[in-house]
Amino acid sequence: MFNEGVDIETIDMVMFLRPTESSTIFLQQLGRGLRLSKGKKYLTVLDFIGNYERAFLSAALLSKGVKKANSLVSIHQLSLPEGCLYDFDLELIDLFEKIKKSKRTKSEWIKDEYYRIRQTIEHRPSQREFFENMEDELLDIILRESSLNPFQNYLAFLSGLGELNEEEKILMNSMAGKFIHCIETTAMSRVYKMPVLMSLIDQEHQVIRMEVSDKKMLE
């Protein structure tokens, strides 16, 4: 509810009730309780999320020497500021060690994000829905690393997840599928490309034209 823009200095307890994959949002939420106030001696943080995939954030936040959120240190090596203490369940300490040994790859992160969005919107996300609902951090990575970008061949991405029906599999391997892939990978930096693409679409009948006249192109 309160990620940023809320500044109530006297808040001395924060409850995490919203799952998030974003370390930025995590820190923004935590920051609501980190304001100094007269008579305020401590902040209590209650984490009800149970999001084990992001559990390492707790360890990272308690270490002065950690520069990146995904850098892990041993619980026994944590250097706490004066007046701070940590209390981890013994099972969570084992979990930290497990996370440290097996880091999730970027490809696995993309797949996890797809299934998260699919569950949230309760149907298979379209290319646009996947793009608009993806965590900002992951989207930045994808846009920088084209080899990871599922939007450059969305049908192939869905096929790899076993999400295509038989008709869609036939489409993917047809000329129509190649045409879609061509559109996905063509840079739209030239001013004429988008009008040419739009002229191929028959808006009235919602179909692709097999040929385009000069008049349709100019319209």
What can you see in these coordinates?
It is a single chain. By secondary structure, this protein is mostly helical. 44% of the residues lie in helices and 5% in strands. It has 3 domains: 13-101, no CATH class; 106-174, no CATH class; 187-219, no CATH class. The chain has helices at 23-31, 56-61, 90-101, 106-121, 127-133, 136-144, 154-160, 166-172, 175-185, 193-199, 214-218; strands spanning 13-16, 44-47, 201-202, 207-208. The chain has a two-stranded parallel sheet with strand order 1-2. The chain has a two-stranded antiparallel sheet with strand order 3-4.
Binned strand content:
5-15%
List how many beta strands DSSP finds.
4
Instruction: Specify the biggest β-sheet.
Output: 2 strands, parallel
Q: Stretches where pLDDT falls below 50 for ≥5 residues?
A: 64-72
Percent range of helical residues? 40-55%
Query: Strand order, biggest sheet?
Result: 1-2
In a nutshell, what does this entry contain?
This protein is mainly α and 219 residues long.
